[in-house]
Amino acid sequence: MLQINLDTALHALIMSKIRYALCAWGGFLTQTQKEMINAFLRRMYKYYFVSECFDFDSIVHGMDRKFFKELFSPVHCLHSLLHPVKSNP
Length: 89
What we know:
The structure is a single chain. It contains four helices and no strands. The chain has helices spanning 2-19, 22-25, 31-46, 56-71.
């Protein structure tokens, strides 16, 4: 029960801060900053605050994939800014 509460708290308080606008600022981090975030995430796993070990690069890749998948949905607010799909003969 305690593990579930710690996992939920970490996701709500820390992972949400890391994921916030990650598509916009994630590419501007230096390698040192990424290593510091990864070291923090490994410590959280080592001391049983979370049930899975996160990696910053996999978080960025997953968020990018999710963003672009949602962007291609016709109901997304940014969908109208995309160029029309070209068909190849």
